[in-house]
């Protein structure tokens, strides 16, 4: 069973047992447990988990390879360009931004960081989560 299927299975089992949807904090605990199960032969990923709780307050966290969580109130970064992402996010981020302004800040931070790291890829997918919907936008970076 692949990692995605394992997470979907455990999420569905939670829904059957608890008769409710999983909160973002609970899903973060689930992902952390799955990563910790494989601590001696780890999955080489740094997941970022984001969502809205029952009061529409944002929840974001990231984890290392063995599931140690890092919680934050403003932003988290992960991946090979995380050092330059921290600097760009600290420069651009401010609290209580509108969705369009947040998209612009995330785009500028991502492009600035990807340009400094040759292993980071050719862009990214940006998800703006609001109480009403989830918007995905694809950002294309340099293609060399």
UniProtKB/TrEMBL annotation:
SUPFAM superfamilies the UniProt entry points to: N-terminal nucleophile aminohydrolases (Ntn hydrolases)
Gene Ontology process terms (BP): proteolysis involved in protein catabolic process
GO CC aspect terms: proteasome core complex
Alphabetized Pfam families for the sequence: Proteasome
Annotated PANTHER family: METALLOPROTEASE TLDD, PROTEASOME SUBUNIT BETA TYPE-3
Protein name as it appears in the record: Uncharacterized protein
